[in-house]
Amino acid sequence: MGEKSFKTLVIIPVYNEEHRIKTVLERFREVEIGKVLVVNDGSTDSTPKVLKGFDVEVIHHPQREGVGSCIRDGIDYARKNGFQLVALMAGNGKDDPKEIPILLKPILKENFDYIQGSRYLEGGEAGNLPLARKLGIKAFTFLWSMLLRRRLTDVTNGFRAYKVSLFDDPKINIWQEWLSTYELEYYIHFWVLKLKHKFGEVPVSKIYPSRKKYSKIRPFLDWWPIVKPLFYLLLRIRK
Length: 239
Known about the structure:
Elements: E1 8-14, H1 21-26, E2 35-41, H2 47-51, E3 57-61, H3 67-80, E4 85-88, H4 100-110, E5 114-118, H5 131-148, E6 160-163, H6 183-194, E7 199-203, H7 223-234
Parallel strand pairs: 1-2, 1-4, 2-3, 5-7
Antiparallel strand pairs: 4-6, 5-6
Helix pairs in contact: 6-7
């Protein structure tokens, strides 16, 4: 398929980002990257009002369902509307829309199925990342590398791109109920590597706005949904 024939959808899950999503969407005025879809995950602040000021597609969840549910809705929208590529990015300003072409290039030029952004490859950047978080990311990524026998550098970075056709593989069943929160991205990561779809990493920046309130991932409470897909799938507890 020629490069110009690819339609790209940028999926941005958001929950209570009234102070940051405006800046994120304003940055898209400096780059032309397909269509932007914001999935508002039941925000209780003024996020919905802010979104009305931009020419983007919006899906509203009446209540919070989880980031996995947001991504699934985005992929479903892409499939129903003829998009061949999806790029995922954060709605809190950590990812730069100008770097989306870096994610897409290996898919367009070398027929990759999935490209993971990495802040730890040469040329990448991880500004304001707290030390404890950095150590956790490194340890988790090492665990993945060891168990799946593949050198990985940044498993937890949500800045990534997929071919939509990847989800035609019946082994990658993203519609399962247990994948509604943080599990989904790691579930996809596991099966792409296990099934030997064409996967690669590229250097990107991930700049945290500050060292305080830098993530909605709650210590301990949200770590298990991130960790469990690896063990559930290796132990064949889930498919």
